Model the fold of this input.
Amino acid sequence: MDGDIEDWAEELAVLGWSSKAEHVAGILRKRIAEGKHLPDVRLPEDRISAGLKVSRNTLREAFRLLTHEGLVEHRLNQGVFVRRLTVADVVDLYRLRRVVQPAVIRDLKGRTVDLGQVRAAVEATEAAGEGADWRVLGTANLRFHQELTALAGSRRLNALMDRVLAELRLVFYAMPDLREFHVVYGARNKRILELLDAGAHVKAANAMSAYLRDAEQDLVGRYREGGRPPQA
Done:
């Protein structure tokens, strides 16, 4: 899980966090989102602190931040582990997304925005759909949602969506092949982009609401069957 752990320290110089603990949390969050640390995997304190050249106190503070975000958990006498989310977690993530993402789209009405990055994410999803690695496809799909949220021009919304999508990754990584899931919803991303291109913001927001409702139902069903999460 940590073949390039010696290189982590280089990332401290480029991530724009305001404290060393937030730097470390940012690196770990990014690695979790990229699937480099999977659910139920232990995060070894000694190796990570040595690899990042930070104190254990700094690392523990980073762990506290990530625990607050729901990405890791401390298990008594065992250490810190990447969380395995519950079905209730999945439902709550989508509840938040249904509030935020359609509202972002509706707020674009009357504004001039550059859809270039959203379009690039759609094109990347289509290209990834032709490959065999569904995780690459999933990354491209989630990038669409990040870029769409970024149109709001709010760093707080961006940070919120980064945390939400990192948690959602934990759901994806706990399950078997999700290629079909991402192909289906990748096509719906393209339709939302087409509506935005046409200036049909209300229709685009409604399409996003329907998208998230359907994706939640689909994902919860698959997760119960394939992810075998705890129900509490």
About this structure: Confidence is low (pLDDT under 50) at residues 12-17, 228-232. Residues 49 and 56 are 6 Å apart (CA to CA).
